[in-house]
Design brief:
Keywords: Oxidoreductase, Peroxidase
Shape: globular
Structural class: mainly alpha
Protein name: Alkylhydroperoxidase
CATH class of one domain: Mainly Alpha
GO molecular function, one term: peroxidase activity
Organism: Hwanghaeella grinnelliae
Number of helices: 9
Order of helices and strands: HHHHHHHHH
CATH topology of one domain: AhpD-like
CATH architecture of one domain: Up-down Bundle
Helix content: 55-70%
CATH superfamily of one domain: AhpD-like
Radius of gyration: 17 Å
Strand content: under 5%
Number of strands: 0
Largest sheet: none
Length: 196
């Protein structure tokens, strides 16, 4: 566990905090520092867990999971958030199930040239992600219309907006409190390919 503020260990948690820590547990059975950093304020952790799961892990989302993780990774790259990028790029690369494609996509995103690997609706969503992250006050209806013109429906626009908004939130929380990956298991998927 590592951050610039105190984080409470499982064994030192009171009953109320233990309940929220159990809610925040990963498939690995651990509580990642991104959630544990809220341990001094369990209600904040509870809200964060629900927001994260609604934005990125809701079964009703129709954007493919691999591309949800690409959006998350791109926002985290733009925000220079090593914590989120490490986790969500590992997930994106795993879900692509094509190391060559993953390497090309990573290079395109790092160079801020998503058009090298994406087109259509996916490219429109990545351009929206970049502008909303770096120039939020300059977003206009035309940015949303560009996604619609590329075939992205309103529900998927909302999904993309929520993923982008969530990662801008969490990147700032992590960077602002000096949260590191120390003690975390990176990525959602186990080595054998299943969520664990």
């Amino acid at each position: 566990m590592s951050a610039w503020i105190r984080m409470i260990k499982d064994e030192d948690a009171n009953e109320a905090l233990r309940e929220v820590l159990d809610l925040a547990r990963t498939p690995h059975g651990t509580v990642d520092n991104v959630m544990r950093v809220h341990s001094l304020r369990p209600s904040s952790m509870r809200g964060h867990v629900y927001l994260y799961r609604a934005a990125l892990h809701d079964d009703t989302n129709t954007i493919p999971m691999w591309f949800q993780e690409v959006i998350a990774s791109y926002v985290s790259m733009l925000n220079d958030c090593a914590y989120s990028l490490s986790n969500h790029w590992a997930n994106a690369a795993h879900l692509m199930d094509d190391p060559d494609k993953a390497a090309r996509v990573e290079k395109a995103l790092k160079e801020r040239r998503p058009e090298d690997e994406f087109s259509g609706g996916q490219l429109a969503m990545l351009r929206y992600a970049e502008k909303l992250t770096l120039q939020p006050g300059r977003i206009e209806e035309a940015d949303v219309d560009a996604m619609k013109s590329a075939g992205v429906d309103d529900g998927e626009i909302l999904e993309a907006n929520q993923i982008i908004g969530y990662f801008n939130y969490v990147n700032r929380c992590l960077n602002g409190l000096g949260v590191t990956l120390q003690g975390d298991i990176v990525g959602y998927y186990s080595k054998d390919g299943d969520a664990s």
